[in-house]
């Protein structure tokens, strides 16, 4: 057995219609010292998001299954619904539990300078939380059986640095399964909800939005949710999105797919915009660099858009 090299560099380029061209540069020093500490940094660039972060990882009693990490970063996000500039410092502890569930406890302090719709603000939050994640897949690029399950609970208290008190939870489930006759089905769901004292003090990152490649296709990225009195999307207190997709490869590495996505973000001080549904057909190609998905989606609840094109490159 040969040990991994101490210095690890990574560079990648991809494309998604939500993000445009995206790129990532990353560096890891796997043996910062004799105790196995790691030092890392990464730079991410895309059309609507740019960010830089650095982290320091300390192994615990069982290094492959538990560790402590200190991270700091700066991120800018610019989309139609909102703009944010976020500075964050976080400490997290990760540990693998029964059934391979990864448990992560964290506490972060974040400062956001944001504009959402025609409103703007600056917020500061001290946010503790816990996240559980279970992943299973039989192949990194072309899975026939895959499960991704994540539950996160987070919050803040106004008396401890934060601009308002809130408690939020989010559940994400994605299940892929091969079916008879060469078919594959994909079920995806996301549920979220929060209690908050003053909603308008929340940065967009803490609110719920819907729409886009990984949400409700046929609609722009995070462009769905309650609207304010002037018609701008400001996000909501609740989120409910469900998706069903079925595909079949019909000619070598080429396949076809059909899908339906439905849901929205709800609640908060804005006016709810109702359930939104997108339906469509897709073309699949098992390329040498991973799956490429070209999808044409029709939003059933948007009279201004007949067809929206979605393109994604990467595994399920």
Describe this protein's structure.
- It is a single chain.
- The protein has 316 residues and is mainly beta.
- The chain has a single domain (7-313), classed as Porin (Beta Barrel), CATH 2.40.160.
- Helices cover 0% and strands 62% of the residues.
- The chain has no helices and 16 strands.
- Strands 1-2-3-4-5-6-7-8-9-10-11-12-13-14-15-16 form a 16-stranded antiparallel sheet, with no helix packed on it.
- The two termini are 31 Å apart.
- The model has no long low-confidence stretch (mean pLDDT 91).
Strand order within the widest sheet? 1-2-3-4-5-6-7-8-9-10-11-12-13-14-15-16
Total separate domains: 1
Regarding quaternary structure, how should these chains be classified?
single chain
Question: How many DSSP E strands?
Answer: 16
Strand fraction: over 45%
* Overall spatial form: globular
Give the integer mean of the pLDDT values: 91
Category from helices, strands and their pairing: mainly beta
* CATH topology (fold) name: Porin
Largest β sheet strand count, sense and barrel closure: 16 strands, antiparallel
Q: Helicity, in percent? A: under 10%
Run of helices and strands: EEEEEEEEEEEEEEEE
Question: Which stretches are poorly predicted, pLDDT < 50 over at least 5 residues?
Answer: none
Give the C-alpha Rg: 21 Å
CATH architecture: Beta Barrel
Q: Termini distance?
A: 31 Å
